[in-house]
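Continuing the series of single-chain predictions for the mutant panel. This is the parent chain; the variants come on the following pages.
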Amino acid sequence: MSIPFSLEGKRGVVLGIANRHSIAYGCAEVLSALGAELCITYLNEKSKPFVAPLAEKLSTTLFLPCDVSKAGELEAVFDEAQKQWGTIDFVVHSIAWSPLDELHGRLVDSSSEGFAMAMDISCHSFIRTARLAEPLMKENGGALITMTYYGSEKVVDHYGMMGPVKAALESSVRYLASELGQSGIRVHSVSPGPMPTRAGSGITDFDGLMNDAVNRSPLHRLGSPEDVGRLTAFLISDWASSQTGSQLFVDAGHNIMA
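Parent structure:
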């Protein structure tokens, strides 16, 4: 028996699209194709021309600015979502940042200011997102998805301070899953392998990292933003209604190799 997979009737927010190569866009594209109604954000006026055509292509209901480092912008997104929809069913959080020189440098040499800002943008913004989403999900529950990376568990060259920051994000997922479960809100982290995205290109010798992933992964290929989108769609769907607090890899099995 064939049962169609659909997200018809579900509404949610996708944070972190920078361009058509973004993991967040891969997620938005799949979610839209499956019938979800979207609110998409862009970082600032400089990034808007790259994101606006994508939002138009997906017939996005809401298209809003959101720099999580600026007071009030994240809150404004959820205010508009509440005005437009009343409730939401999911949030996809695909936001990470660190000072480039400190990303490439030694963790031991990182500044307190740089580390604090990386933690705020890459980790605490997800916690703030959960706080804002909770009252919009209390009636019917929902799903909160964030993006992490294997460098949280093992030392990856040139990943620097983002390793500890992503480890904190993954721990936050587990605590949020515990705290929000009574409201029917499920929380997951998805861990893509190296992909040719704008964010990845900021890592020194990223081409070497991707080549290693292809050579050493059991499937001998990279995952894609669309692959991440398909997993994210499943986690958002009612088919995953009994799953929460998980970390799931989309890396062709690279994470299991010694």
